[in-house]
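Example record used in the benchmark description.
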Amino acid sequence: MIRQKYFLLIASLLIVISLSFLSCSKSNPTDDGSGNNGLSILTVSPAHSAPGVLLSLSGFTIDTSKMTNYTIFVGDQQSILISDSLGTVLTIVPMYFDDTLDIWPTPPASALSIEIFLDSTLVAIGNSIFTVDSLPHAPGATLMLVDNSIATVESYKSILASLVTEPGPFEQLVEGITVGMDSLIYGGYDSTLTDLLTALQSSDPDAVELIDALFSSSGAVENSQQLADALQAISNNLNPPLLKSSSVAANDVVLATMMQLSTIVKDFGDSYISGVAQSSSNASSILGGIGLIASANPVVLAVKAFVGALAVSTSIANLLFNKIIVAILPTKLDSMTVTLASDTISSNDTTTSTLMVYASNNPPQITFGDLVDQFLAFAGTLVPGAETARQRILDSYNYLIGQMKNALQAYASANPDFSFDPAFFDLTGVPVIHWAAEVQDTRLLDLHSTVPDKLSVNDTILEWYAMGRSGSSSITITPATGAEAVLLPMPPFFEYHGTAFGILDNSSVFSSTEKTVTIKSALALVVDFAPTIFKTGSNVLGIKAGTISLTGDTTWVSGLNVTLTPIGGTADPISGTTDSSGQFSSIIKLSSGFDSVIVDIRVTSSLGDFAATEVKAIVVQQSTSMIAYLSDSDGTSAIWKMDPDGNNKTRLAGFNGGFNRTNGHNLHWSPNNSYISMDIAAFSHEIHAIRANGTLTNSIRLIRGSIFRLSSYNTSNQSWFPDTTFNKLLFSGRHQTINNTTGPYTAFIPGGYTKLFDSSWPSGMLRYSPDGTKFAFISGSTDSLFITTINLDGTGMVHITGPFTGGVRSIEWTADGTAFVYIREIGSSSRSSKIMKTTMNGTTTTLATEATTSFNLTLLPTKNMLAYIVDSDNTGTGYNIKLVSLDGGSVTTIPNLLYNIHTLSASPDGNEIAFDDQPNVTNSNVYKVNINTFVVTQLTFDGISDSPGWSNSIAAP
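Model output (structure tokens):
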């Protein structure tokens, strides 16, 4: 708020040169028992000044209900006591004359005390706290003040004219006020201040010299210059061509500019009105005893005459500037509204909204008679005869109002479509005017969202963005604050604390009504479905669904509704919801008589968002089984497949990530034969997969070595979930990018993984049980190993056998899930091994004992047997395949197989075993052997194929 010393220009001058004299008697204070007789101790700022300067007193609070009962003395001179709107106690340095007829003040030589009396009792004192400076000579100060007044009026006229955008009540009132200001400054009744000052300079230069000094000493001239400069800066900043634009975008700027201007003008007015009202009954002479010394002194009479003219001018100026101008400007923000094209928007979309503000003026009731009475109570002794003063003010008022009404009538005649009764405007009130503007200027409003991570704010275009998450958020708007919201250059002495639409008070709105916006997320839908189907078989339809964020990232979401519409087949289930990983699967079967099946897929959220697609599979002939293998036969490393007799060799996919054939091993078909997975062992250890139908160019990198460090990578890290309706496999590793946490994970096809639970134990060779309810793994350390089972949720961990020392290779469940078989390494130097079987109740049987290394257990479930590889002489130059019954007994060595065998894979019927011969990288081939006849068949002849993996009983197309 503006300080008291910056009263509206002319009003502050009136207080400075007020000439009245009120006498009072003094008495000592009574003792209140505190030792200081109840006195308040005063301090003053500034500590020294010339006559006419405003002083601020501290240490005392005025009881405003008793303003007329206070008097104040600065030394032996009575002065004016004022309390401003902030509660600051103020006074004015009086005039000090010697006992001659010289009217130039002679300041006391010593420091003066300041005393405040309530009635006749001393209530506050500051002993020897103030020194009076000499009054400076300032020729021309009064004339400069008048010139500044003229400049101020011209700036007001320019500003008001710039704010007019269209015909209406506001423009009509501006026309009338403009005429009134011209009348006030340039005359038309009796004489103007300029005329009086010119006459006074000719008739009594001593009076002019004194008035100049008082105006300069009080700071009135300086303040008037600041005000004139500030208003000129505001006027220059307003661009009339822009503000007079008829576009809506201009109107919001105009309205905000008008409301900010009203704040400035209102603060000036409040300061002035407060000062006059609180000092009117307490006015005392700052000219000291001038009236007693020489009431008929020509200089004194000249000063009184000029002050009388100033009184009339000040009264009319107060009415015009501080009542009418404030009354016609919009000061109150009535409402703000947000209108949306729809209360529901889609993810990644922007709200289409209209932001409106509505404002009005808040005109005070103006009673001119009260204004005159108030003025005369303050300055009635300044002009000879109160009735003469009243009549002169009324005459000036009537002339001013007459001029303004003529202007209003002329405006009404020039705008016949606009109805306005000039007789209404009699200065007892100003009509209520309403403004409305659509806000498009980003400086004026601040947008708010209760859930910004769902509905974010974009202040640069005054809109809201849905961030890719479904749900709801409430939005509001508030007037903007801060430097960019201030459209007017503020006066140097004025600190603006308002908003873009002025100062908000109890009658103004602070924000728009909250409006709830429902956000529909854009859905992502990924479908995995083989394009071919067997007549007697089924395909697994795998779905992953989620939401897409503003940046394009996908979050897989549970609880999305899935509906399948099969044509030419059946779906089981035909509908449902996505699980915690955003997945849903169904078994699709071909109906009799159809050669293809089409499935329409529709995924919807609870908000009605949806994503849809269609998949199709055509009939192909069924094959007994197939063998996948790795080969460089076409010049690049790739995964191939062939019939069990070696025919129909087909390249399926290359290696993703720059790996080659020598890095891959352990090819495993998924239970429904849709995918083939493998281990990649190189500088980083990974799990890859391909589609068995050959529709992928390169392998899918399910588990990246840069993210996971896999456990027991020298054996198979994969274990397919046994249910054919789920394409997912189990692995174990340490997540290197999330605090190196260890745990078992499930990898999903076509991509992604989920940790089952955190684990602190080292785990390797995780294997699903045949019923999919738990898994087995090797736990512990080299010196204390266990074979352990655990439920999929991390509960029910049981050590089935152990502890024992040495390594463990190739753990596998038996087909019925009642036991598992594994290879124990015995000793570190002899590298001997045992083929073991342990039942779920912990009973362990040694099926075979080998004096050399054994590895790569392969079950032949239909034969109740298992096969394994042994290093024939522990030199690594030749290996044999051995067979042993799961019930124990003799071990059979398949004869004539002294190859460099690294991989075994049994046929679905258990009658054949595929293996490779890898003496070196460039001389390896794939073979098969019949375990009943021991006949060996070579399947590849290129010398660069290995790692066979036999499919399940129903082969992929």
